[in-house]
Design a protein that fits this description.
Layout: H1 2-20, H2 37-56, H3 60-65, E1 73-78, H4 80-89, E2 96-99, H5 101-110, E3 115-126, E4 130-141, E5 144-158, E6 161-171
């Protein structure tokens, strides 16, 4: 009986994969459903450019519109060196701080200081539905470096286009 059930399972599994146009032995052979990866990569780059332009212009509304409104995360992790410096001054300091893009939007909107984040060594990966962006950054305030580190963004394609779902960055502030 077990043997018949096993054979039936294999027949059903094989027919399912056959109906899907693929074999169970080679799922990597599935053709990509999105032929617009280059276009999506450019669209993700446009989100990065819009983010930078919104910060330069202190345009909080534009900056906020780039994020997924219902649940974007914002995580800052202090580097080993920065954590040691902060811990020496404030013993109960935490290394990982979870914040919100809305706090950053308020800062950008209300500050009189000139902000200029620079991004280098950028790498964008996407399948046309989700994307990740990794880069090194230096954050300038009034032309002076105040922070540097690496960032990773997770973006997704929503009904309204690409939105930032998560920004996580290492932080090595110049104190």
């Amino acid at each position: 009986m077990k043997r018949q059930v096993g054979k039936l399972f294999l027949v059903l599994l094989s027919s399912t994969f056959a109906a899907l146009g693929q074999s169970p032995q080679s799922p990597q052979m599935v053709p990509s459903t999105n032929s617009n990866i280059a276009s999506d990569t450019m669209d993700v780059q446009h989100v990065l450019d819009a983010y930078h332009a919104a910060i330069l212009a202190h345009d909080g509304a534009r900056l906020a519109s780039l994020f997924l409104p219902q649940g974007s995360t914002w995580i800052n992790v202090l580097s080993d060196e920065a954590y040691a410096r902060v811990k020496a001054k404030t013993p109960n300091a935490t290394r990982v701080r979870v914040g919100s893009y809305t706090d950053f939007v308020k800062l950008v909107s209300s500050s009189k200081a000139s902000f200029n984040p620079t991004h280098t060594n950028m790498s964008i990966h996407t399948d046309g539905t989700v994307a990740s962006v990794y880069f090194d950054f230096i954050f300038l305030v009034d032309g002076k470096e105040t922070n540097r580190g690496s960032e990773i963004w997770v973006l997704l394609k929503s009904e309204g286009g690409w939105r930032i779902a998560d920004i996580t960055y290492s932080s090595n502030p110049r104190l």
